[in-house]
Amino acid sequence: MVKLIIDSQSVEAEETWTVLEAARYYGIDIPTLCYYEGLSPTSSCRLCVVEVIRGGRSRLTASCSMPVQEGIEVRTNSERVRKARKVIIELLLASCPNSRTLQCLASKYGVTKIRFKPEDRGCILCGLCVRMCEEQMQAGAIGFVYRGVDREVAMPFHTRHEACRECGACQFICPVCEMPCQGPMQPGQLCNACLDAVQLEAFPSKD
Ligand code: SF4
Ligand code: SF4
Ligand code: FES
């Protein structure tokens, strides 16, 4: 077992655990988007940011991929973490300003405006769909294509891949492929109406 401190509590964790798994085991809430139990972590969204103090030095890191280490102190809700988390939510919202999931995160963590220019890409490049298709569905029908601002998820040559079984798992797992927000938003503002939203169906009807 590894001994560490999380939010001022001395805890013990299995050597194979990540900081996120240890925190969740002890009931400490850390928000995540690109992490999904059973899929390999890629630490692409950075939402699970925590402050880690070791040897008197502090740094921010993604908790979903950081292994627990003997003697470290982890702060999941320090001023530094809260500020970083808000900026990350703002950046994600700029990519998908109408996402209910992101709007709910904004409400929960006190983000009330987006300072970055919104460009509705419909994707935060979290890679969950790619990993779900490859690791759980064993299909490998989709992947990332292009680089930089053109980066997106697609099937090879943008044509239907024969390996795709149309299982819908990629859509199910996507944190932003939901019905667009219906709230009365002004450009650059967040309506926060999603606080009253009902839970979405896993496979919403297209009609
Ligand atoms: S619907 Fe197709 S692309 Fe999506 S997870 Fe299933 S097999 Fe993969
Ligand atoms: S389509 Fe959805 S699940 Fe796939 S990378 Fe984009 S945001 Fe993530
Ligand atoms: S949940 Fe850890 S980086 Fe996305």
Rounded Rg: 18 Å
Tell me the distance between the termini.
52 Å
Do you know the CATH architecture of the largest domain? Roll
Question: Which structural class fits the helix and strand makeup?
Answer: alpha+beta
Strand segment tally: 7
Largest sheet: 5 strands, mixed
Tally of contiguous helical segments:
5
SSE string, helices as H and strands as E: EEHEEEHHHEEH
User: Unreliable segments (pLDDT under 50, ≥5 consecutive)?
Assistant: 197-207
Mean residue pLDDT: 86
| Ligands bound, unique | iron/sulfur cluster, FE2/S2 (inorganic) cluster
CATH class wording of the largest domain? Alpha Beta
Total domains, how many?
A: 3
- What share of the residues lie within helices? 10-25%
